[in-house]
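Known limitations

Files may contain more than one protein. Parsers should not assume a single record per file. Below, a two-record file is shown to illustrate correct handling: read the sequence, read the token line, then continue until end of file.
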Amino acid sequence: MAKRSTLFIRIVEGKNLPMHFNLFMSSLRTATIWKTLSPFWGEEYNVHLPPSFHNVSFHVLDEDSLSRDDVIGKVSISKEALAAKPQGIDGWMNLTEIDPDEEVQGEIHLKVSVLGKGYAPKILRCHVFEARDLAKKDRNGASDPFVRVSYNGKVHETAVVKKSCYPRWNESFEFELDEASADTPLSVEVWDWDLVSKNDFLGRVLFNINRLQSAQQEEGWFRLGPDKPKHSQYEGTLGSLRLKLMLRDEMVLPSSHYQPLVELLCQSVGGNLPELMMLIDETTTAESRQEVATNLIKLFLGQGLVKEFLDVLFKLELDKTGEPNTLFRSNSLASKSMESFLKVAGMQYLHRLLGPTINRIFEEKKYVELDPNKVELKEAGCAGLHRVQTEADVIQQSAGHLQSYLFDLIHAIVQSAVYCPTSLCQTFRQLYQRVQERFPEKEYRVSYIAVTSFLCLRFISPAIMSPKLFHLREKHADARTSRTLLLLAKAIQTIGNLDTLACFSKEPWMVPLQPAIQQGIAQLKDFITRLVSCDDSEDLGLQARMSLQCGSMEKEGFLFLHRTKDKCMLMTSPFKKYFVTLGKDTLSYARTQHSKSVNELNQWLSALRKACIHNTDTMSSYHPGIYKGDRWSCCHQKDKADAGCDKTRHGVTLQEWYDPLDPDLESQLIFRHLIGVRQAMRYAGSPYEERLDGVRRFFKVLQDLQDAHQAVEEEAERSRNKNFLLELQT
């Protein structure tokens, strides 16, 4: 049984902000938006947080390519504020000034005791053991921390530990307890020592003397808190951000509790209980459809039934569709499920397909425009030319560039038939055949459009328009490149619709691309014919790659690995660049690069944490530094076999499309949705419940799961009450 906290983040836009900025939190960083005070990001993330997190902060930075980025302001939201609004927070939030005394992190290990009995003077003793994960205040990436303990006007300080965020002091201090000043707290502050400038505040812990006298002793790890907040003189003048945030806390039960529900869901796509999937389809609202589709896709991938699941949804959608022109054009459960499936099963295929053309467009940065109302001649001119280009020249040149990009892309699509994943081929063939059975009088055109509506309109075109969101590029495109990508995506959509007349009647300025589009339509039809002719005997194999274990590759890219420094070579760097691959069972590195990939430190940490999530042999602590010379660089301990100064099981992980499956979590998410629509399902399913034992069992299974959750919550409440009573008695 485990508690999972997941935060959905949508960073929408900003207004009245300083220029040249980007946005970051501890685990993610947006692209930089240049030359605008009201940027639009539109970036979405799902972040898995440790249950002990207290708040989430978003910092706005002024990007500087030559020196360290300047922090402009921040938006901070507490865990309590997120939990108070289960439907989520969506709105504009003002940036606030960042006070260094409030930017604290880490924990300190203390033992505070009250010594002495009767009428004898009592002694207050504070033993300072160690601290971990302190803020990095110095340019060397660490701090020089010391502890200041004060009580009733008296102050003691520990020694300074140089260059460490995981210091160990093991020092004790004593104060004479003043019974008359019981309201005076014991203050434990951590500071970063600086030789020239003033010391930097790292956090504090306050102890109530009355409580200490009752308990006699308190020992443990205490979270460092900020100093007293100060009034900001810049409040309301730093701009604001529009954010959408939704926190989900899930109590995941052991697998045995979800097994009956999973078995019934499998029966619903296996032919024994089709009415159940029909009820889920009918009662899923538009707001929750995307999330439910993603969870169902992941669950059936783990069960090896994703092909059957999609087939059931295809048939349900076809039964409700009377006009073939509207087939799969709405955001139905079938459409959303197919979109999710393409992202899970086809992302590597998409990267291989689009990567070369997308990279070429970003590198060439050509000015491309076909709409006469948007042509800017100054953008098309050249400093060394005497003749100014006319509008016709610009459009002709732009058409040539777009035709070249379109030719490369269509050629890549045609060639991709040989490496398109078998799972995609079989799913598209299944879709093609179902549509052909439903609309036999329409020959093959409707079947072709059914395939292209997903492949071109819902997969390839969105990736062309927003390559960063599909991990094709590290940063968003600038305005010129974005326009080129948009025009190319329009051309692909026109080809996917297999109809040039509709496009050219709405946007007649696209006519210069007509020959290339007509040729592309013919080539796309040939490609689909090959795509849906795959061999059914081939094993789908996808669920094996997306099982509880990691996939064949979690991450790859260049990292700097520390090596022992040769004492004779004082000028050489102690770090060497290697190409690192994190796989299912191995973490390997080589001197050369095998494939191009850009991975930042937090993405690597996220991937490593996911790879180790089911490893029962994972250590509880580790050293975040290196053993150099005769000591660890993080905590300065000399014993190389020391257990470690930081916890391993904490930190933030990003939810990515290639994440390993977690069947229990997916089952819990589906259960939560089904409980929310149970009444609607009972109403819609009343005819089936009377005559089908499977539907009756389904509602009983939901009730049993709800009872199990309630029992866990009641036990947790009893435990909290018991601890509270023990504290009162103490």
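...continuing to the second record:
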Amino acid sequence: MWRLPGVRAALRRIRTAVEQLSRAEAESEKAAGAMERAVVRCVPSEPKLSLSFALADGSHKNMQRDQSEPLGRVLSRIATNALKGHAKAAAAKKSRKSRPNASGGASCSGPGSEPAVACEPVVKLYYREEAVAEDVLNVDAWQDGAVLQIGDVKYKVERNPPAFTELQLPRYIMAGFPVCPKLGLEFGDPAGSLFRWYKEAKPGAAEPEVGVPSPLSPSCPSWTETGVEERVYTPSNADIGLRLKLHCTPGDGQRLGPSRELESVCRVEAGPGTCTFDHRHLYTKKVTEDAFIRTVSYNILADTYAQTDFSRTVLYPYCAPYALELDYRQNLIQKELTGYNADVICLQEVDRAVFSDSLVPALEAFGLEGVFRIKQHEGLATFYRKSKFSLLSQHDISFHEALESDLLHKELLEKLVLYPSAQEKVLQRSSVLQVSVLQSTKDSSKRICVANTHLYCCFTHIYLQCGYIRLIQMAVALAHIRHVSCDLYPSIPVIFCGDFNSTPSTGMYHYVINGSIPEDHEDWASNGEEERCNMSLMHFFKLKSACGEPAYTNYVGGFHGCLDYIFIDLNALEVEQVIPLPSHEEVTTHQALPSVSHPSDHIALVCDLKWK
């Protein structure tokens, strides 16, 4: 309901009113000679508190003091700092041959005498109009609303006000693609914070004021409001060539902290035109109702693999070099994922920095929260919609570690040790399994096990080689998922997403769908006789590929085939709809994937699932 235009407009009006009121109060206080601010940061888990304020001489003080220290020591230190600041200011005035000291600071000189060194000002802390005793510990003395007095100057103490610890705009901005700032907030919440977007009126046209340089260009741009007062801004074609500025005030719904402004380091670039996912977004304009779970599985192509000579010359020689750059691809990935309005998103080949700096800010702004599991150079990420689910627990494993140490896989390991060459290859692989148990926010009895993986890939003849390795990894995965969904959380349904690097004709797919695989299956010898390892496997799930068996989910110059799946528990879930994949014409517009209109060599699987 909160997405309805009328409600959103009302929220914007309320936020604007709050911001205007805050600004008016600040101006009123300033006009009335109101108190300065003294900001205190005091966190129980840290031994020290910080205190920051501006002295009368204009210098800014940041102090770190033990929370267990008596207040009197801090006040004495403040008095010393104030005295030093006064002395520096006096020396500066004298060097400039300024007029006699007319400030109200304390002085030890008499009438008509030479200027003398100022005395230490009286420094006191008051709470509810009573002086705080100097033997009170810092942790108890510095309360929100207290008043610090330094000489004739008074400061209002703000303890743990909302504050930004990090604020960053993307390095590459394109028209038609959402700009999601990376926010680090302490004692605040993005939902309680205020945002206002500006754009250059004319790029670099205005001359700077004398002595005021711009960090961005030789000239200072003038700014006009965009009218957008939300966390995310999507530039239009009219913004091409312009820089953006974000004015934001941290808040917690009741208090507002100090505002900050941030200007983009780049100008808005033109977008690529129609992308492969634009038509798919027509099916996913709204978030699904509570009875449904829109699920996405997507290998987004790790930057660590896209930015190699092998990738540029062998894997993707047809792709424009700039379209392989991470900053470019991140714009497409963010727009594609946010446009699906998904409830659960499972991603593979996620760089750690991409997760924290790109995916988390973008998806968090659209109501999703995520967890990450590193493999080696990249890993897995699972996001879930916070309005629908909360994270109950995580049960991630590394396949080779679990196989060697977990008693769940004792029988499988006993079979594998009979084939030393195969065992060695299996235990060398770094593949991992991410398992998250989610609980419905509307009905606590509804829980679901979401698994996410990326099975081993040989990079050559994907569907022919290393099939036995993927079979064993899948056996470990299913045994572990069964333990979580049957032993730890009895009878909860399973959604198993991933890039399984296996076509529907392989042993891995046969094993998942049919529940067993015989010891004479050809995949046990997929790497030749030397690594042959014949064994039979069984599992007890009843699984189905929710999106069926598409002609391909991976389309590169030398290969195309279906490698990605969303496997679901048929006993508890059913498929409501499958979002159509891009047409073959769309996929091959630029020969193959990735391309200027598609950020990965894989295609996202998207479907709406329904609780039975």
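Parsers that stop after the first record will miss the second one. For reference, the second record is described as follows. The first strand starts at residue 36 and ends at 41.
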